[in-house]
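Let's do one together. I've listed all components of the complex below, 1305 residues spread over two lines.
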Amino acid sequence: MSPRPGFILEVDRSTPPALFWHGEGFRLEKLPTGSRVIYPPEPLEAMKDPIAAVTHALENPVGDSQPLSSLLFPEMRLTIAFDDLSLPLPSMQSPDVRQLVIEQILDMAAAKGVDDVVLIAALALHRRMTESELRHILGDRIYDSFAKMGRLTQHDAEDPSNLIHLGLTDKGEDVELNKRAATSDLLVYVNVNLVSMDGGHKSVATGLASYKSLRHHHNVKTMVHSTSFMDPHNSQLHSSNWRMGRLIRDAGVKIFQVETTLNTNTFPESFSFLQKREWEWKLRDRAAFIAASTALEKSPPWLSRKVLHSIRSPYQLTGVTAGEVEAVHDTTIKNVYRQQLVEVQGQTDILTMGLPYIGPYNVNSIMNPILVYCLGLGYFFNMYKGKPLVRKGGVLILSHPTRREFDPTFHPSYIDFFDNVLSDTTDPIEIESKYENAFATDPWYIHLYRTGHAYHGVHPFYMWYWGAHALDHLGAVIVLGGDPKTVHRLGFLSATTMSDALEIAQSFVGPDPTLTHLHSPPLLMADVK
Amino acid sequence: MIVDRLSGKSIFITGSTGFLGTALVEKLLRTVPDCRLYLLTRPGRTSTAAERIQKEILKNDCFELLRQTYGERFDLDVASKIHPISGDVMSDGLNLGDQDRKLVAQCDIFIHSAASVSFDSPLDQAVAVNLCGPRRVAETVIASRKDSGVTKPVHFIAISTAYVAGSRRGLSPELPLSETPFSIELDWHSEVRAARAVRDDVELRSRDPKNLELFRKKAVNELGAAGVPVLVAKQEKLRTQWIHDQMVSAGVARATSVGWPDAYAFTKALGEKALLEKQDEIPITIVRPSIIESAMMEPKPGWIRGFRMAEPIIISYARGLLKEFPGVPEGVIDVIPVDMVAAAIIAVAARGPRQDSPEVFQVASGSRNPLKYATLVNHVRTWFQEHPLYDSDGQPIMVPDWSFPGRGRVQSQLERTSKFLRALEQATGMLPIRGGQADFIVDIERKRQAVDSALGYVELYGTYAETDAIFTIDNLLSLYDSLPDEDKDKFSFDPALIHWESFIREVHLPSVVQHARVKTTPTKRTAKSRSDRNLALILSEERHLAVFDLENTIISSNVVDTYAWLATRRLPKLKKALFAIDLALQGPSLLALDRKDRGDFLRSFYRKYEGARPQRLEEDSQEFFNAYLLKKSFPAAIDRVRRHKSLGHKTLLITGALDFVLEPLKPLFDDIICAELELGENGLYKGRSLSIPPTGEARASILAKYAEEHSLKLSESIAYADSTSDLPMLEAVGYPVCVNPEPKLATIARKRGWHIEQWDKAKGLPPVYLPIGRSM
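Okay, and this is what the predicted structure of the assembly comes out as:
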């Protein structure tokens, strides 16, 4: 039986309550009659033989590119860059798709007598990964043979000795990249394309860039004019990265791009109810839901978090393409859309969504309030093509406990951002002009980013810019079940029950509003007509 | 006419900085424009007699009326009539200069008002001031007149107290004590000698090894391992306090043994006796007021100076702290407004002395216009029911009903409560808690202090609410009757004129409440709280240096954690478990060593690193920092260090932690002073530190040296620390901040008004029970 496409349910009196993620737990909410619930398509079927698929892709590149084996020669400097653990979410069961690809590349390089090989985790301004995280992505074999020799590195956007300025784009954007990567005879980039904003020129132009380079597209102006940044044709973030990518290509950096796509088989058997439509739940699903939600509710948040973060997704490969960046990415985007796109007719007054325990920036860590903001207004709100799911001036209702909790090792500047910046203003433009420079150049944050496992000092600002388009578009944001004080600090409204939230929402959108619920997991992208 | 009689006279006054003295000076200046006042004033430590008069008398709100009347001419027309005389009633000859002796000789009237009025003065001090003082002043006057050959008439007025009558019932007449019934013949010379001997004896006993040990234990109990200099200073302070307490008890004991309630009344009584022996050489009048309270009319209704006897009791009652106060409901509380006393003294001065024998005037209300104790209590209660004080939450405080129990019952009840709270305080003080959890200990201490001060009031003033003596005022009234009507208006001192209800409700209580600065409105504090003001001072650009302790100030961790984590990081699982068990077993002895001597405690840990490889420790420390220290850090503390830096303050960390552990913290501070291990020739660490561990007073001297080298002022610096062992450092700076203080430090901080910060670890992280090393 082939997987079913996405589905839009109209709620009637017999519809069971809808499942909402609620941080490290769940909520079941009865939605008003007439509401729409958007269900994602079912996971696509996996490629039968992933290893063979990877080999095939490497040797049969698309676009203007030679097969990988013919690009390798003994005296060359080969650099393999790869996406960090912000992708996929949650982390996938071993072996990770990056391990599959890199092992084959390394085998080919060994066969061709290439000695000078360096692996670089393309962190941009993300935190350095820990040993166990790197082992998970690359496998023990690669880790053990590269790490001890210093040939496994993590990109350091603040290391002036290992950055190179390649020039300015026609829009005056600095392009400054990791020197080793940019000066290698061949740069192979291995990506995991979870959502449509990933990959393409963004892989190198963002993942291996410096703050000086990133600030040209990671800013409020770009984000407000990316409608959405998930839709390449309407994304200034995309255009800027593409301008930079072409400059990099023209500067003579030879890139061999390998992009992979996964299906949405996100949760293992014990949590499979999450991926099913509620009215199709069997007795086993109900039992699993009750067991899981009760256990999570009874545990302290840190314990629930530990349990959930230990989940490894049974993702499966749906596509792997290699070769010239743009040609590769065209194929990749088609694969992503094939899995995620759902056609939706018309916008809604109120959009509801449940936010899970995990986002790109809190793997093995706490989803702090700023990440809650970013996940809701940055990521989920922007999962559209065409028009936003919610109309201009509409209301977004997010379900998340939004506790004032931060991880001081991973997110030190987030704490100060929450305490010292958001207490002053929540306006992205004001925040950018008044505070960004101080955080971005702060020596303490730079120290923690370079030697510890901290996100760069400027990172919380990017989180805030990610939501700028949504802030601009929405009439109000209501957090359901959040800690009121924390929610207010974010500039949002707070409600304890769904009916309270709906009542508050009506004061913005008027009586008898239309309501759409974005059901996740797994991920979906709305194609709003 | 009083004014005419005093016009052009020179009047010498002692005790003019006191409550009655100030009122007297003001009234004289206001009513007798052309008299000259010679005020005997003891120079202060940093101020001359003239400066004290300016500051303590003329600046008092007592002079508002005069300042208003004279405006800019106040200094010229009023203040110019005051001549400061530098001297001291405690020294023979009053320590007068030759010039001043001549001035004194020329005076016409002498009013001796200086006294040690506190009921709990040490015996020898009360003797020196109250017993010897009047006679000493009189002798000086006689001698200086003789020296200068002055023979003009003179009048010596001594202010005593009605309570010289002692603990007796019935009428107490206006007579020298020797002429009253039941008077005891006491030789005042032997009392003076005895008081000095008692002082010598107590001084000796305070140095008895047993007592010294007691002070040491008490100091340690209060301050913990605060280091020798701090503990020594505290011990000496405790010894001095002990001497003081012994002398106070000696005073009460001697006084009660001869029929007076306390040392004050006792020494005043003997003071009269000693003075009257000089009656042949100088005419003497004695004025005996009862309990002097706020002014009824002049210089303004309710004027009062200092927080006197009844006021603290009234305020404690209004705040709900004093639940019971002993007293006989039908007993008479003899209170007299200060303006009546001042007027009576002036009238006595104007009338002149009786030449043949000394005369006594009592200024008291009890016999003519008695105020019943029950009436007073009733007025106070109803007034506070109508005008309640408010607690910090803006809630009105309900005043308790007094049932007039006997003194013994109240006293023993309070004693029991105090004892219980003290034991509770001690027991809880030993718990290893800090920060917000320790708040309840501070609460217990606060309650205990409230009970103790209530007990103090009962012990001190209890008798005054139970006195059955009635002070007759026949002399006073006949003086009053002899005055022309105009004087009666201007100098009214007939106690019958007091309308008690309005005096208490409209004059006295509003003034007491205003002086006590208590909350009289239900609003929550809108103005900046004290803590906000402190913080603003701490975060002012004017500060120079911010110095931080590490453990429990910036990071909730210690050297034990560090050692355990580093030692176990590379161990296999089973060995980790064994190590953890071993460490847990050592816990109590480690805790004890830390309490005893922080330096020894640190050294014992430095020894454990013997043979360790520096490079490996460096790597492991980096991991320790990310996996453990940062997670146990106080984000607010790190933010505070950075705030100081951004304000241009120098930031310094002083800690007994080891340098390799602190390496990742380096960029946070401008400088770090910490322990370093000695390196052996084999390239491995020896288990020894290169220098003395920076703890206790060593830390304070390191800080002082650092400040000097960098030309920073400690008085403009801030220190952050969590424990009493950091006291020397906290005391060294102008702005000490206690972070999550342990109970002992919290108590000290509260007493000294130091800023307190409660900083938390980041929330949401899994709890760590044992510091066992594991990679992230």
